[in-house]
Fold these 2 entries.
Entry 1:
Amino acid sequence: MSTVIEMQGLRKEFTVRVRAGRLRRAKRTVAAVDGVDLAVPRGELLGYIGPNGAGKSTTLKMLTGILTPTAGTVRVCGLVPVPQRTRLARRIGVVFGQRSLLWWDLPLRDSFDLLRHIYRVPAAGHAARLRRCRSLLELDGLLDTPVRQLSLGQRMRGEITAALLHGPEVLFLDEPTIGLDVVSKQAVRGFLAELGAAGETTVVLTTHDLNDIEKLCRRLVVIDNGRVVHDGSLAQLHQRYGSTRQVVVDLDEPPAEPVTVPGARLVSTGSDGRRLTYALAGAEAGELVARLAGAGALRDLTVLEPAIEDVVTRLYTDR
Amino acid sequence: MGLVTATAARDTSSNPFAQIRGYGALVRSGFRRYATYRQATVAGAATNTVFGFLRCYVMLAVAAGAGGVAAGYRGDQLATYVWFGQGLLAVVLLWGWSDLADRIRTGEVATDLLRPIHPVALYLATDLGRAGYATLFRLLPPVLVGLLVFDFYLPGRPGTWPLFALATLLAVVICFACRFLVNATAYWLLDIRGVTVAWALGSSVLGGLYFPLRFLPAPVAAALYLGTPFPSIIQIPLDVLVERDPAPVQVGLVGVQAVWAAVLLGACQVVQRRAERRLVIQGG
Amino acid sequence: MASVLTPYRHLLRGQVRAQTAYRASFVVNLVSNVWATVADVLTVLVLFRVTTSLAGFSLAEALVMVGLSACGFALADLAAGNIERLRHYVRTGLLDALLVRPLRALPQLLLMDIGLQRLSRVGVGAAVLVAALVAAPVEWTPARLALAVLAPLAGALFFSAIFVAGATVAFWWVESGELANSLTYGGKDLTAYPMTIYGPAFRRVFGFGLGFAFVGYYPALALLGRPDPLGLPGWVGWVSPAVAAPAVGAAALLWRVGIRHYRSTGS
């Protein structure tokens, strides 16, 4: 698989003025992105998360040619974003959750048509992609409505379509589900999942909504204070931070002797000794359940998935 | 002011001192709010200064062309007129106030009704604080620059400065009431840009910012003074300051302002009542 | 070449459609914009009620300057006036949205914000210029006719450059408020009057330093066939439209520096 996005030692510094005394202001340099190395292969759906001010948006801006890095190198689709911005723009799509790329006073249809000319896309490919988005994002009823009359969720579906009409190789989404209602969130997630499954488009997603990540991204990059603090799957993140799946079983009788399976730890035993809670750290749930069933009659069984919020909160708080 | 007593019924506290303290706090908050826009203040004062130079040179050329006195103003009177006019335009805030219209558009205006204070009084008190800030940081700097470069006419009569202060206060109230009315059209109109532009042009041309209205034929000027509130916003305070007229006329002009202030605040009341009824019945 | 411009043409067409989508408010804006220029002309007429000459220029002669200034300014305001919204775009991050499109940022901004409702103003400006040229004692020659057409166009370029240059302030100073207005709207007022009325220092900085003298005053002198009381030779009036070239160059340079600064600070 070829690499679509490559960052090496990427760094972005801002100078901020801090008040020092009544009138004097002192300059201070702050690194918003502090040496990020990352390679994203083609077709990956990457979640890029971090607390406010961690450097997510700054990274995205450097990837899309809006900001010049202070140090390090970036390549997207083999291009250097800032000097080759307009060439790169044809090959990427960008969705900003909080600002619109559509024409406020025009119907969606006209915005899409304008974008075809701006990106100079052949009509056939444009029409095919629009057809696909129309059905997947249920746009049919909205095409003739001026953008300013659309709800936020409807507009976001329009924004995503607009970003995909020129058939970009990479789609960047900056907080695409922010402020959306549950139904619209689901529609957006479903669409992105489909897009990811097709494997043609590389998707980079920044978000605050960890459910987005849970549902969509196999790979998760967590950034904090401008540095990558985690790069891997969600499961690896859980493992690393000790948050694990839990198996809760209710037995008819307390087991005669403790049931032990390597990689599973007994966390608690109910007061009557019949409810056992195990934390899985490596072991398969099936293996544990089989052993427990052997030890006595199994009345009930629950598998608790770890809450990603807990993990991430822990990640942000112990800096 | 009539307004404050008219709104007293709304106040939950019946202690008059507590009420005055309440309005005082609003005035201070208006002052402080604008004090945080320090950069905009510098930019605005610089802009007024450039326009002060431009208009002053034109007026001096007019006075010179007219043989020293143009429509009753000498060159130094015109210089004072122009420079104080540039400052005054920021003190009364002729342009660029859309707080109320924005709140109407977003529906936030409904929360104004939750306060134990009349909405018109609420906005007016805040605006007076703003005007106080503007007097210090938008009026004085351009005037000082003008004073360094041009010959100013300084008032000779002892009563002129206090009268000018009163005229300025009334001008702030009148201009506020006009802005309030312009903004309030947002209750009924979807797009108030047309109204805003009409107000901006009307107030600046007919208010005496482009040229002193005395340059117009006397009947036209008189009709404007008495028939429209615009001259009361810029022209009258400046006429008072440069002592264009004898003292009794000077006082009479301020009287015209007082009448306009009362009429317009009354109009604000009426409009506010109608708007409230609309808000309550139609839910905005 | 044509195909390079195609996206921009479509962008313009989309903008026209968007702005005329709400016909009633478009018409209101069209009409209200007339009054801005009418107010400028009215001001000059009123000034001439109390004086018969302004620094030795008669009303008709002064109106030639007003016409040149109004025409050039109105055209520039139509094409580039809304770029003053750049600071709003910088503050809200909308500029980022333009930067991810495969088009250059400045033409996009100019086209996106083209002020069609100011078309009416161009009409009024042109009418004033024509009326003034008819009323003023102009000895018409082909060269004068050419200058009368060329000067407002050069003025339009010049004012557009001022608009762009003024807007770039936002890259460094987002809270600059109406500061740019002092050069744009102020420049319009400045060019509408004879240079001789201004104080020497003011004239040197704004008239000659920034070039405003060559937009209204010097072309008017050439059209009217009057010598310059300030002592510059007669050919200056004829070449004054050339002032647009350095202005456009300087504005383009400022823009480049500004957008580079934006890219490095992400303000």
Entry 2:
Amino acid sequence: MRIARPTRIVLRTLALVYLTVLLAVPIVTILWRTFEPGFGAFWESIRTPAAISAFNLSLLIVAIVVPVNVVFGVVTAIVLVRGRFPGRRLLSGIVDLPFAVSPIVVGVSLIMLWGVNGWFGGLDNVGIRVIFGLPGMVIATIFVTLPFVVREVEPVLHEIGIEQEQAAATLGASRWQTFARITLPAIRWGLTYGVVLTVARALGEFGAVIMVSSGFPGVSQTLTLLVHSRYIDDHNTHGAYAAATLLMFLALLTLLLMTVLDRKRPGQPSGATIAAATAPAEADTDAEVAGADDPAPPGPVASAVPEPELATTTRSSR
Amino acid sequence: MITVAAAHKSYGTFKALDDVSLEIPSGSLTALLGPSGSGKSTLLRAIAGLEDLDAGTVMIAGQDVTRLPPQRRGIGFVFQHYAAFKHMSVRDNVAFGLSIRKRPRAEIATRVDELLDVVGLAGFQHRYPAQLSGGQRQRMALARALAVDPQVLLLDEPFGALDAKVRDDLRRWLRRLHDEVHVTTVLVTHDQEEALDVADQIAVLNEGRIEQFGSPEELYERPANPFVMSFLGSVSRLNGEIARPHDLRLIRSRQQAEAEASSAGVRVTDATVERLVRLGFEVRVELRHTSTGEPFFAQLTRTEATALDLQVGDRVWVRPTRTLGSDQAAPVRALPTEEEFPALAV
């Protein structure tokens, strides 16, 4: 479709204004407010005991949630893509539930389940405090971040199909060797992206966590909760801005780290080449094979690259 | 030697393999040939262990491997769409099987270089599959399969995804490679020309059964049934019989035709010339059965055609010099019988 030049300019301007007003201005404002009184003031307000504790707690939750989600996310994605069993669609729907349910509802339901008077409340009597303790915050965070790894890994698994794994099997690789040497590297990029999203959401989760946290400064406040309490309870606006900046910095660092890690392996084609270099023209697939194990339509990032010299393709946008 | 005995495999109500038995001699290059859905790929995958049989056994080199996973069958498998490990270099792809077997590094390096040399990919060690053409990827896949010294090499439509020119080259190259390496090779294809070109033995499959197993010459010259005859090479149908188009003799005089026919004990068909196509050495004569209106064609040499001096619209009498007995099991029964159509009796 050809668009007239003036229209194009108008559309571009609109898009830029939209992004600026909604994304850039708020972020710049926070940065501006944070560093307006000088770097020293910022440094001081993130070195208070409450801030240090919140920082540590946030990192601790991330450190627990990410490995759990990676393991269960990858397993779930494999089950959803490769498995053939009744209820697969139902399971797929359940994975999306955290996207649909408001985090605050998650918090409430967790209290109902794990609270002193809840179904599993008996744990409190044996000294395991879930609600208003670290376990509750971890469970809440896992709940809201559960879909990310699954949903990022799933299309990549579709995309790679099972032939590479079958080829590895014919070459003598055991299931575990096949997973470690073929499947895992192939889904690496999707997994990386899922982890980044998980980290970002885990750091930023508010609704579910505030319901299950006792919220004592220096004890059970995450960085996000700290921003809230400083702003609302203490009217310490600068302190809130500073903590917010620290949060943004952490998220940025995650993004950066993942990008670096992904590029680190020498000579690796980037994630895009994996997606792009699927077999060319699906010419004449035998019905007999297709009936037996044809996984599913290729994922959304599929673009056939039949010939060489195209390895420089940039990563397809998600 | 590969022995498949009484193999059965169904997907729901669809019978992919229906009592298939086959003995593939050691060191041969055997083609499994058949149309889509004939069970040829299923049979190959069953030999590889990528597909479990519902019933029957598979033996490789005297060992019953029916219950063994693919890892322990001593096979090399090449997929239609290459199944290249996209995140590994060409060298690592080829080395995969050896590194799984924990061979010493130096040995792996030597073996990989040797194989890349054999498949003509020396110098491509550090490339990635995405940087190779389809034909190169398939040769890499072959080297990878050969690296582990398989007892049998199984190829599932290996050239199916390649364009015609590359396919022809690779096919010839595979034949030469087989003559050098001598590993028992089974190749699945739906392309009869490919099967005739490379294979020592061809098994023709249809609807989950083996229709015939033999050398290309045997299958072409002495097809067991109309299906095999029409699947390998072209056929013309006349009076419920099928014959090779080059086995049809065209005669201009009715008397001569009938005299020849009665001495040979065959029938003569009355036909009209519809079109003449000169394809270099060969002349293709498109004909129409005068009484039934059924089209068919004959192949003549240029000399024969010149001698006959055929023109479009000419009436000729056609006598098959060789036929395959009329078809009980033919997939299409196109022509009426003599009883139904007395006018056919000439």
